[in-house]
Model the fold of this input.
Amino acid sequence: MDQSIVTKIERFIGEQLDCVDVKLSDIHKLSGGAIQENWAMVLRAGEQPPKDIVLRCDAPSGLSTSHSREEEYALLEAAFDAGVTVPEPLFLGQLPVFGRSFFIMGRANGVAVGHKVVKDLSLGGDRELLVAEIGRQMAKIHSITPDLDLGSASGSQSLDFLSFPKVSAVQASIEEFRQFLDNHHTAFPALEWGIRWLELNEPEPLPLCLVHRDFRTGNYMVDESGLTAVLDWEFCTWADPREDLGWFCAGCWRFGRGDLEAGGIGSKQALLDGYNSASGLALQKADLDYWEVFAHIRWAVIAIIQGERHVSGAEPSLELALTAHIVPELEWEILRMTGLRMIGLQATGASL
Amino acid sequence: MREQPNAEALLEIARDVLKQDILPLLPSDQRYNLLMVANAMAIASRQCQQGHEPEQEELKRWQQGLDSDALIQPCAVEMSQNIRAGLYDSPDGRVQLAKMLVPSVRQRVLESNPKAL
Done:
């Protein structure tokens, strides 16, 4: 990071803390993040002990596909106030400081990479306890509801920027999926079937609450003893709480451990026990089946969008190109879960 | 007449060199990239191996199921519209749709990630 930018950020933090003696050191960019950049650094302010912090800012390309940094900061604050294990939000920066939107948060320690978390049993502590804790964390996120007056309660930013579905959250998603497919150059009939199945089997909606929408293995950090942070708050919206549980358990996010139904790390029952104990709901394993189909369809649509970034020539990338090739296996699973695969295998017999 | 080895065999031997000889020499932060390259080559190799026959069979199956002589993309669009309109909601409709869809999706998985079958 350019020294002139570091000086500007030091001055900004000094103003926030009302402290003239602010120094940033050990600055290095963390890996990952094509749209946002994360910079780790150590903050020394006056006589205070040094603090590990992370500055999160827009990448120079300025691509905008999710919540802005201001909105993400508001979400992080709301989650922190609700008792979710997240990096402590410290300062919301302003564009004029160095020309990009940013915020500063505490730095959580641990490992997030999905396949490492799944395979390395020295991480995360007892896995069933970890899964139950994840269930409790989800319940805390879902305790944030549209009628909660965040602004007056704690001085936090409001979540007014989150839109409300005009119909049920499921119907809003169905409309969104279909709109995308209608505007895409290639038809995906198996996905269309999955979407139709969602429409025909929609359960009675639960009251809207804050849903993370990307809470899965790979998006939380663990150290040797357990969970240290829930990450990536950029897809949050008001929706049905079961969507998060289905996304976490979906077969496509188990990193090779299909037998461990909760994110490749533990049992679905432990997740639900943790969730139910903190939320007061009484969800059963069967309640998640619908939401696992929903998760596969949503991930398939995202995978097509990501693949298209390469196919269109806008952003040549091997990783994006390979993401497009995940779609068939997601469709195969959708056909199984909705019963169509078995019908097809019986009807066509030996030819398969 | 083309030289032997053909595309599929070339991709296969090139992939073996990458995984057996080059991968162990790479620093850990580059291993993921090489594994992605190997995966892309494996998909390309399986597509070469399968040739165009599965697509022709798919077209025939879809034309028969839709009673149409359209090409593959218009058939996919028609099937999608039918699904959305509820034409395959009934038990018989589901059998009709499954006959068209299941072999097609299976074939695509066979090429993109056969381990998922």
